[in-house]
Amino acid sequence: MAARPNAGLFVDGVGFWMPTLAGWRSARAVLRGEQAASSAGGARPSCALLAPTERRRAPDTVAVALEVAAEACRGAARDPGTLASVFASTHGDLAISDYMCATLAQTPSLISPTRFHNSVHNAAAGYWTIATRSSEPYTAITAYQYTFATGWLTAATQALADARPVLYVAYDIQAKGALATMARSQGLLGTALVLTVEESANSVARIDWRVEPDSEARPTAARPQNAAIVAGNAMAECVALFEALADGARRELVLGLGPRLALHLTLEPRH
């Protein structure tokens, strides 16, 4: 028997950043096929939310996560400091993990306290609460290849259970060193959504969803030209959802939650 659909949610703000698609406005036009992706871009976002000292210490994971989180909050017209949040990353900061492993193996006494501080999986969430002066709850989560859908489901259930908006941020970066042979990821990609239980003037889509035990379900693929833009990044599965938001048309999507579990989404545009 198919699972019953859960209560719908609304997307009130969207954030998207990668070097060739700096911001949701640019990304939306490219994902819709209205223009080509830029051939050049910044190495990472400016991370303007942070004070200069913290900005210099912040790794790429933090920079991209805070950039898309802030953009989504602006689109939703929400005060960032008032939102509960879920931060999802498949691997965390692989560059710092590679540095830590190499240094511990060769010169353990030279481990950088700052890099050690930034190596934890919840670093981006912690920087976010500092930058926004937020005391709201946050979750940092990973589920390996099923991270994006698992993070989305976590944010959705929190929003419904608490009847409050939740910020969902998902990001991954380039794998480095020996770890790249096992934890593969390319490029820098960050995405964010503000999920709400009530429709507002800022709502761009309604999402109805259900979870089903389904060993045959295959994740929805983005159009080839869009999939190619993020090919190799560990968070690439998210692009089908953002493509649907960019299209502004009704779409049925499937995201993987596990080997025998699937998240089914139905998007209905609002404007």
Residues in helix, %: 25-40%
Please, how many domains?
1
Count of helical stretches: 9
* Beta-strand share of residues: 15-25%
The average pLDDT value, as a whole number, equals 90
Name the structural class: alpha+beta
Q: What overall form do the CA principal axes indicate?
A: globular
Query: Uncertain runs with pLDDT below 50, 5 residues or more?
Result: none
Number-wise, the strands total: 9
Give an overview of the whole structure.
The chain is an alpha+beta fold and 271 residues long. The chain has a single domain, classed as Thiolase/Chalcone synthase (Peroxisomal Thiolase, Chain A, domain 1, 3-Layer(aba) Sandwich). Helix content is 34%, strand content 23%. The protein has nine helices and nine strands. Strands 1, 2, 3, 4, 5, 6, 7, 8 and 9 form a nine-stranded mixed beta sheet that branches. The protein is globular and about 55 Å long. The mean pLDDT is 90.
Short note summarizing the structure:
The chain is built from 9 helices and 9 strands.
Could you name the key traits of this structure?
271 residues; alpha+beta; 9 helices; 23% strand; nine-stranded mixed beta sheet; 9 strands; Peroxisomal Thiolase, Chain A, domain 1
